[in-house]
Structure formats: C-alpha cells, structure tokens
Amino acid sequence: MCCAYGGGFSPPYTDLLLRLRFYSEVVSWRFTAESALSLSRPLSLSLSVSLSLSIPPHLLSSLYPGLRIVELSAELTQTASSPCLGIRVTTASNFYTTWRSECASSLSFLLHQVARVGGQEDGGREGCSPGFQVKRYQLAFTGSFQKGQALIQVEFDDCAGNEDVQFEVSDPSFFVDGDLNLVPRQDVLRSQPVLSIHGLSAHADDTAQVEVTGLPAQSPHTLRGVLGVGQTLPFRSKRALLIPPMIVTENQRAPFPRKIGKSHVISTERLGSHIFRLTGPGADQDPKGLFTIDIDTGEVSVSRSLDREAIDSYQLEVSTTDFAGNLVEGPALLLITVIDQNDNRPIFKEQSYTGEVLEGSPTGTTVMTMTALDADDPGTDNAALRYNIVRQSPDKPSPNMFYIDAERGDIVTVISNKLLDREFEARVFEGSTGVVVNLTVDDRDDPDTGAWRAIYSIIKGDPTLSFKIQTNPDNNEGMLSVSKPLDYEAKAPHTLLIKVENEDALVPDVGYGPSSTATVHIAVLDVNEGPVFFPDPLIVSRMENIPIGSFVASLNATDPDILQIQSIRYAVLRDPAGWLSVSPVTGTVNTSGSLDRESPYVHDNKYTAVFIATDNGSPPATGTGTLVIHLEDYNDNAPYVVPSIARVCEDAHDMNVAIVGGRDKDLAPNAAPFKIELGKQLGLDKTWKVTRVNSTHSQVMLLQPLKMANYQLPLLITDSGVPPLSNNTEIKVQVCVCKKNKMHCSSGPSHRASLLVLLATPLLVLLCL
C-alpha cells in the first residue's frame, strides 16, 4: 500500500493520530478514545471508528475536479504484514458509497473511485431531470429539533419552475417550507432514523431520504471495546434472500411513502455489507417510482396511491450487490398484490331501457331485464350486484306495479291484470316544460315501415295548446310534453285524450278500427313561485343633488301563489353608487346619498338599481325588479377652457394666438353658449384681445409683439345656466422663435401677462423722455 502510518504507541493513548501518505501530500484522520490501552508488543488490531477528513484542497481539485467530500468513515485493520482499509464516502450532493481495499491494494485506487463518483454527482448535466436533484441527505441530531428551525435544504427541481410543488414528510412532525427547508412543526425530542420526503407537482413525482445521525444508542465505553481487542473477525457464510409476498390497498391517502414489507438477507455477516436493489415495472420501469426499497434495510415502500382497476399486481425483482455494484444475491421475485376497495359504482350497460307489456297481462309477466357491470374485483363482494327499483312514475294505479329480481335484474309485473291498462297519470311542476310521460304502443307489423310507425295526436282536453306529443323515431313511443308552462293556481288537473294511428292506412276488411286511444291524467304540482315586480323596470325622473332622504319611488311586487297567504319583504340587491335605501315592508325607496348626474355610475343620464323581493314560503322564493332613475341636470359644474397651452411666433405677422373653446359637464341649458373674456387684471387689454367666434369658441389675439418667453394669460369663462357659473382660468401662451418651419420655445417659467403690461408702460414713458 502506497502509504505509511506513524505515531508512538506509549501509554496512555487518549489521542491517536494516523497519517496516510499519497504522493507526498498528507491525508489525516483523527479520533479520540475514551480510555487508555497500553500496547507493549506488535498486535493485530481491528479499528472501526467515524473519522473526520482533512485533505489539502489543491490536491483533489487538481487531480479530480468537481469532487467535494463532506463526510468520511473508515474501517482500518492493521496486521503485522500489511494494512487494509475500507472507506465510506459522502459527497457534497449527499450521494454516498463505500469501497474496501484488499490488503495489497493502494489508496490511490480508492481516491480515484471517490473522485469519479464525486465528479459524476457534481458535474454538469445535459438536460434537466425532474425531481430531487439529491436523493439522500444526512441530518445530525443534537438532542432535540426546535420548532421552526430550518434543519436542511433539499434540492428539488421539476424543470418547470417549481410551481405548485407539494411536499409530504413521512414524519408529520416535519414539513418542507417555501424555501425547500426541512422544518419541525413542533419541538421534536425523538426522531425516526430515516425520514422520507415526497415531492409532487404536475411535472415531477419523486422521493428523497434523510438519514438522521447522532440518535441516542448504546456504544462501547472503552478503547478495548472500540478497537474490538479479543474479538474474532466475522467469517463469510452463504447468504440467501427471503422475499415474502406483499400487499397494498388501493386508494391510500397521504402521507407517502408508506412501508408495505421488508426483504431479508439470511446471513451471519455484519449488516451493511450489501445494498438492496429493486427492479421491474413499478420501480425502474414504467410506471416508474411506484415502489422503492431502502438500500440498507430492504424495506419496501409505496410512493403514491394505486388503482387496482388499472394494475392489480406487480412482479418485481429484489437483488443485493456489494458497494462496488457486483451482484451478491438474487434476483428474487417480489409479488405485490393490490387489494381492492369498493371504489367503482355499478354502471348499467345502457343509459335507458325500454320494456313492453300488454295491458291485461297476468301477474309475473316479464317486462325486461336490466344488466349492470362493476369494475371492482369480481372475486369480492365489492362487485356483487343487487338490483332494486328506486322510483316508479307515474305511481298510479299502484305505486308497486313491478318487481325486479335482486340478483338477475328481471322486471316482472306484480299487480292484477285488471289494473294493468293504458290510462296513464303523470305529474308536472307548475312553471316547468319538457317531456312528462312516454306512451307505448304494440304493433305487430314490420318495424321501420309505414304500417308500423305511429302518429300521435291530442284530440281532447287541451284548449290552450299547452301540450304537444311527438313520435320517438327510435322506439315508436309517443313523447307527451308540456310546451307552455302550467299554472297550478289557474288549473291543477288536466285530462287528455290521445289518439294513435299508423302512417299507412289500414287494409280493408279487418276486424278492428284504424286507430286507438288512451287517456292521460296530468296532475300539476304547486311550486312556491317568487314575487313578481310590476312594472319591471320601474322608470322615474329625479333632479340630481336632491337632499338625502328624499322620496324616489315605491316598489310593487305581488305573489303569484294566490291560494297561499304570504308576506313580501324588500331589499337592495344592486346599488352601484350606494345612493338608495328601501323600506323592507312598504317598498318605499329614498335617497341615502347625493344623486350626481356626472357620476361614472350614470350612463346616458340614467342610474340603474336592482331590488329583491322575498316571500315567507317554504322554501322562500325570490324575485327581482329594476329601478331606472332618469337624472335631470342641475347647474353644479363650472365651465372650463381648452386648450390650456397655445404657441405663436415672436415675429409672426398674424397676431392670432389661438382659438379656445368652452367645456361644461352640465347639459343645456346649463352649458353653452359660453362667454369667454380677458381676466379682470389691470392692463390686459393693452396687449391681448379676445373675440367671440361662435357660441362655444373665441379667438385670442396679440395687440403688440412679445419677446420669446412663456406667458400666463388670465381668462374668465361663464356658462348660460340659471344662475350662471363662472370660472377664472389661465392659458399658457408660448412666444417662440420660428426658423425653417421649426418652433424654438422657452423652457423657463411663465410670466404673468398683467405684470408685463404694468412693467412695459413705465418703460415706454422713459424711452419717450
């Protein structure tokens, strides 16, 4: 072995240092024993201890780029002839593996293997692999885990942004937060040795394991116990795999993974000398990831809910390998059976069945046979079906005219043949429409011919044409339906006489007529109808800005159920601006806020609110009504001038500055025509002039040239309302230098036009002197 160890063996030895040399670089491990042992002569030792690694960074970075080792444990056996070393390495990505050197092997081989695995784990990837980027983690237990403490951060990437990823931890005392940290929900004093974390999103479904180290356990208390002095080395014996069949119930709920069984190695060798592997459909083949196996203990877990109706059993293979990947035992067959749950309801083969029976048929006559299927396990009671009749319509002349065999599904008649006639009775709720009853006929002619096809008609009992009857082309039945909603308060029962005949005329000289009739009784059932507003909508006109509490309108709603004595209460259903209130008893609507015609809730001068009326029936019924308020304008908005900025060239021959117009949120006659004039400041009329163009616009002119600058020109605009409203406003006039069709304007502050006039007058006087 290309290395050496050093250190004196003089008692007592409370601190032992082993040095392994590799290409003149030093790799050091250190451990501390709890008691001393005197050694006076060469002796075969067995050393098994957790060690800390100290390797110069430039050594591995130059030899094996990408390798980052965070933990190393070793087993060293020192004999008189040569040393043997076994190393268990955990890289920064929490992948771990173990190598054992033969006594003649070199440490360089071991480090090469470590570097190769480390580089594979931490190297670049050509594409994203959805799931946990690191499958195994280690977490040190220090006596307790405190609530809310971030313990470790897992690496999970579903390759789609990790949106809506959900994590479940096998121990409910922990959870994974939004930063992918494993966090205790509460103070944890005792922990399981292994925690499983299941990550699930629309793009990934994966499981990782966290090994909790440092949990309380009994250990030797002397250096003799640590070194194993006086013990015999284990010998290798024949191994065998014991793989019992396993079962798992379908539709299990979270948390996952769930343990379902354990594989065993029958061997006298020490534990940890082999790795369990699970292969086959459901493990490393589609559907992948359903089952996992703990590589150390052989415990098999299911990672998510199963569906027996999709796959009822899985045949997998379990094998063990050494830490170099060489097969040790197996593969052995593992059969996992999915136990059925009653999660499938029976389904009839047809959505509708049609049976026929002649009127007057004797009791026990078979009408039809119903057939249903169940997807559950046919060998269990979950798929054992029993039939029963849920409802018969109509229920006259007897509510139990038929019986169904609970096991076979045969429907037979159970009433007297005298009660089995064609007079039917149907029930329909008032206000509803649609088919209420299907009438059947018996015709022995060839189907789908004119001699077989039936034509139905209502010949009596429908003066308001509230019913219609049509032939079903598939089965020749007559479909009697309500075409106009019926009113219970107007007429409760209806008796119709239906006639049926063939498309083709009956041949002559037969012993019966060409048509047949049947009587159908229609019972109209009362329904608690909602109150009805009248008129709907209710339209009123009101002036805007009327005082709060002013009367607006009176709502009127009546109950159509005139045969019942019911009261009605009113309420506001939709009032966008919150301007209205209503008396719950009288329906009187008053203002609770100021009505504003210029509000964004008003459209085309109309404000719309919706009210609801509720009766005290069982159950209560409601109706809605609309109130539209046409708002009349009030002169409450002063006019204003547009545009607010005008430009003119300082050397322009045309002294017209701009045409300005008036605007007003009010309506006529509270708006135009507008009066636009100069402000009341002294001296403005010496430099500026405003001339009316029309009822809404005026012309602003300069009476004398001005130098390049910005000027604020005061204007007064007045509308035509009664009383009129005025507004003192200003426009900004920019006097610019104009060259080659370009205007160069000042970016400085504006000058008051009135101040300029006052300053200019004394200056002209001085110049004249």
UniProtKB/TrEMBL annotation:
CDD domains, sorted: Cadherin_repeat
Record function comment: Cadherins are calcium-dependent cell adhesion proteins. They preferentially interact with themselves in a homophilic manner in connecting cells; cadherins may thus contribute to the sorting of heterogeneous cell types. May act as a negative regulator of neural cell growth.
Keyword entries, A-Z: Calcium, Cell adhesion, Cell membrane, Cleavage on pair of basic residues, Cytoplasm, Glycoprotein, GPI-anchor, Lipoprotein, Membrane, Metal-binding, Repeat, Signal
Cellular component terms (Gene Ontology): adherens junction; catenin complex; cytoplasm; side of membrane
Compartment(s) of residence: Cell membrane; Cytoplasm
Topology versus the membrane: Lipid-anchor; GPI-anchor
Taxonomic lineage: Eukaryota, Metazoa, Chordata, Craniata, Vertebrata
UniProt name for this protein: Cadherin-13
Gene Ontology MF terms in the entry: beta-catenin binding; cadherin binding; calcium ion binding
PROSITE patterns: CADHERIN_1 (PS00232), CADHERIN_2 (PS50268)
SUPFAM superfamilies attached to this UniProt entry: Cadherin-like
